[in-house]
Amino acid sequence: MIAALTGKVFSKSTDRAVIDVSGVGYEVFLSTDNVVRMPDKGEDILLYIHTNVREDALTLFGFLEEEEKELFLILKTVSGIGPKLALAMLSGLRVSDLCRAITAGDIKTLTTLQGVGKKTAERVCVDLKEKVGHLSIDSLATSGTLQPVAPALGSAVADALSALTNLGYSDPVARESLVSVKKRMGQESFDELGVEDLIREALRTLV
Q: 69-128 is classed in which CATH architecture?
């Protein structure tokens, strides 16, 4: 299976691109957001790839970031959501916003996505509410100055975020406090913190 492609952008359209890898052109389907954020024709690119194999076709779906690919694969586990609908959902919302909508049970936001009706939105929230919190945390670094939280530590950070919101802090405030901790301590020290330490350090920034 193809898991990643490194090459040059040969061409791109609204929902796909062709990537030139050593003279071989690979057609890759992408979210609208990823197409917009892609480098220009002729420039280098790395795409994380999901290879979808069916009896009559082999289709490549590409992502600029690993958490986008992970969320795509998680969405596909929900009954009634295939790769095209999962990609359409990623076209409508960025990873962090989509994960927040799912964990909050925000049916109204989810039904604004192309192809997502009320029943599908409800099923997504029920099935994935406990599975996407770490991806929302991985996207904390919206300014580009902080490295994303390591996936292996996502559960600890997600638990800390949940605890902070249970203490009465709003989701954005709780997230910002964790970003502040990460910025102050640095990536290596931040990665070593357990749930209790994360909560304690975050609360220090909120005093």
A: Orthogonal Bundle (1.10)
Task: Decide: 60 and 49 in contact? Cβ < 8 Å.
Answer: yes
A 10 A CB-CB count for 152 gives 9
Annotated domain spans of the chain: 4-63, 69-128, 140-206
- One digit per residue, the tens of pLDDT, for the chain of length 207 reads 899 999 999 999 989 999 999 999 999 999 988 898 888 999 999 999 999 998 888 999 999 988 899 999 999 999 999 999 999 999 888 888 898 899 889 999 999 998 999 999 999 999 998 888 777 655 554 433 333 433 333 457 878 888 888 888 876 677 778 888 888 888 788 878 888 999 999 898 886
Q: Which CATH class is domain 4-63?
A: mainly beta
C-alpha angle 55/58/63, rounded to 5°? 140
